[in-house]
Each structure stands twice: as C-alpha cells, then as structure tokens.
C-alpha cells in the first residue's frame, strides 16, 4: 500500500468534496456531517457521473446524473439500483489534521 498526502481536513467543507487525481484515477474525498472523511472513485457505475458533484446526505452521495444513491461507507449502490464504487481508506493525522489516502500500487499502475 502506498500512503499519499491529499491535503488538510480543513480544506473540505462539511457535506462537500474535493477531487484527488493519482495518475488517471480520480478519487472523490467527502467530509460527512459528523466530520468523518470518506473516499470513493469519482465515477458512478451507471453512466460515469462525477460523484464529487453529487449531493451528500447522511453517509450517502447522490449521483448528479440520475440520482443513484451510493453509500460512502462501503461504496454500494442502494436499491433499487445495483453496483459498487471502489472505496479507499483515508487516514487523518490527529495532531496535524493532514489527510492521507491509502492506495495499492497495483491500483496506481492500472490507472
């Protein structure tokens, strides 16, 4: 696993996102209303909508194209739709507030 610095926790407003690019891979990093940070691939499995542009509600994001509801905890698309979005582990340094994304070398090379 590679640990990639992606910024400071204060750079993302609550219920908003930012996009991180690693090679050709786009990752949407969200701050939930409870301050928890979640990261998923910035691509809806339905029609490749940019999830970073979606509305965040509780621990879900709604795709801006067709309103698919995706759970930010596990990447699963909610019924009646189906699918899954790859998720990524985010580490926050408690002392500094710096955020780090954990991503496999294989995933980086595949992008």
TrEMBL record:
Xref: InterPro entries: Rieske-like_NirD, Rieske_2Fe-2S, Rieske_2Fe-2S_sf
PROSITE patterns: RIESKE
One example of a Gene Ontology biological process annotation: nitrate assimilation
A single MF term (Gene Ontology): nitrite reductase [NAD(P)H] activity
Keywords, in A-Z order: 2Fe-2S, Iron, Iron-sulfur, Metal-binding, Nitrate assimilation, Oxidoreductase
Keyword Protein biosynthesis: no
Residues that span the membrane, as ranges: none
Family annotation (Pfam families): Rieske (PF00355)
Domain Rieske: 4-99
Keyword Zinc attributed: no
Protein name, per record: Nitrite reductase
The organism of origin for this protein: Paenibacillus oryzisoli
């Amino acid at each position: 696993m590679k640990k990639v610095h992606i910024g400071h926790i204060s750079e993302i407003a609550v219920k908003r996102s930012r996009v991180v690019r690693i090679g050709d891979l786009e990752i949407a990093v969200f701050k939930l209303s409870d301050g928890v940070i979640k990261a998923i691939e910035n691509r809806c499995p339905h029609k490749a909508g940019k999830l970073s542009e979606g509305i965040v509600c509780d621990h879900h994001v709604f795709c801006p194209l067709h309103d698919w509801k995706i759970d930010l905890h596990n990447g699963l698309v909610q019924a009646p739709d189906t699918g899954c979005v790859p998720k990524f582990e985010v580490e926050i340094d408690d002392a500094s507030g710096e955020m780090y994304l954990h991503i496999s070398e294989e995933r980086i090379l595949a992008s």
